[in-house]
Design brief:
15% of the residues lie in helices and 45% in strands. It folds into two domains: 31-296, no CATH class; 324-677, Beta Barrel (Porin), CATH 2.40.160. It is globular. The chain has eight helices and 31 strands. The N and C termini lie far apart (81 Å). The protein has 683 residues and is mainly β.
Length: 683
Amino acid sequence: MEKAKIRCMVILLLVGLLSHSRIAARVRPDTLMLKRVFSYKERFVTTHAFEPQITYTYQRSTFKINKRNIILLAVPSMYAVAHGGNREYITEDYNKVTFDEPNVANSKTLVRFTTIPHKRRTLPNLLKYLTLRIYDETMIENSMLSPFNRNNKIYYRYKVSFLFNGTARIEFRPKTDNTQLLRGYALVDYETGRIRTCKLQGEYDMVRFELLMNMNKGGYKSLLPVDCDLNATFKFLGNNTSAHYKAYYLMPQLLNDSLNNSNDYPLIERVRPDTLLPWENKIYDRYFEEKRRKDSIESKQEKKKDAFKTIMWDFVGDHLVNRIKRNFGTNNQGYLRINPLLNPLYLEYSHLRGLTYKFDVRMSYNFSAEQELSLRVKAGYSLNQHYFYYQFPLMYYYNKKRNGYILVESGNGNKIRNTLVVDKLRTTGPYTANWDAKNVDVFDDKYLKIVNNNDLSDKWSLQVGVITHKRMPVNREPYEKSGKSITYRTLAPLFELEYRPMGWKGPIIALDYERSIANIRASNIQYERWELDGQYLLHLKRLQTVSMRLGSGVYTNKNKDSYFLDFTNFRENNIPGGWNDEWSGEFELLSSYWYNNSNYYVRTNVTYETPMLLASWIPGIGHFMETERLYVSALSVKHLCPYAEFGYGFTTRLFSLGLFVANKKWKFDGFGCKVGFELFRHW
């Protein structure tokens, strides 16, 4: 009997051992292995002191235009390849890269050769895929949640298998189909969790890509790849472009550092670390053959035709539909950026303003590390209001360390509606004036502001200056018939004290004071105004943010002719610059009448933003969701208390949409939406 028990126990033990070996042989998840990957950067990289280093890189990119139509002309950076006979192009460059801080690199192109017309750069947005921060929460700036960061593991499913050479293979795929998530695999060092090789597949911002990276070894270098192989496809309204990138990092110095963006093919051949493929050689053969043919043309008439084509197609056409970005100066100290003049992708629709076409020009010039001059032309045309809005801020930094600058700003961005002026003139006569005419209570507001700002410390800032307003009625006829003044001017010194209790990454509290003095330089309005405003942008994990704003303002003194109640922190934004231009929120459905008809206000705005909330989990449409938002806003002003707005919005690759409902004195007060094009915003 005892022998039978022993025999039974032996059999059970053997069965258990065999089943355990079979389970171990199968692919299985391993929590410990994932923990090693998630903690690799903290355990093996950031514990070592960073040493600035200089390295060199080589990149080769090839483009093939599979399908194209006239719409391709309006895509940023694609104008040069959107017309002409060629469909295949190649570019090679050799760069010097300086790492002064971790993840902060300064690159200088020593030599670059391309077959793209006029040496343009096509699809430059693909370059950021070659330098992914694979261990960080987001791989590219504020997009693409990394599967190798512990904060993002709730979005992925993992499968781990162990190989015989001391490595583990980790396969990952997203729990939901979303553009912020990736799929692929990684070969990982079992002992340390260091990623040796990884393959990533995804689609973001209308680019479908597949990336293979071989990572470096040891210290901070292990955060950088040795080489990358990227295949990408861009499809848009019948256009199809495929691209292939090959990049080599940590290369030795092969050229003199004094070179600057040299266009020399023999130099490229010297630094090229591999051999061109046959089809890449054909692109070069075709390019050089065409170049020899053009150089041999001696007909002046043909040269004139080429010159005319260059001016009309390549210069005027390119600048009309595409963004212009240029550096200038002997050491590229200057920078110029101009948004397209005739690109329908810069239209925006809101419930109050209707369609608005926006235009933006930015220019800057660095005199030194501490001094910089910048100018911005921010403009928009409202099709519903038939009105052109503009702002011209000119800023001179004289001490960047202390955020010391002088700002000179001119604009007309806020029309003011005020019935007090009309009510008074209606009773004082003459009665021939038609005070019921259209826009009789609407005034244009042109202003000029000059301020000086300086940071007293990391927590305190002081701003002093002066602001002048000139307000005139849109419909001047009734005022002219009444014989009354149609120009209202103010001249006001201003003061702002800003407090940051937690530094620049915490809440910001600002106290504003403004006092207009009558009878100085044609000023005919006197007032005194105080405003207190607090803003806080709280960054959570996984691209989640909560933006909060609480503010109040009051007019403590004004004379009998102070008809215009115009606050600094409570006004209508007529030239919106995008969804994050006013990240603390706005009132989307509030009539412009309420901004200027109360001598006080109390407002609060809260916005919650996350990459995946509601629509992101819906099959089919969830793939295209980049960000979702919830909005809550409340307001109290004279004769309107309380007023509230609630909204939901999302951003896709094509557009942003916000849906809002308003509540006035606890009753439903309307529904509206805001739509903005997001196409190529990050290109």
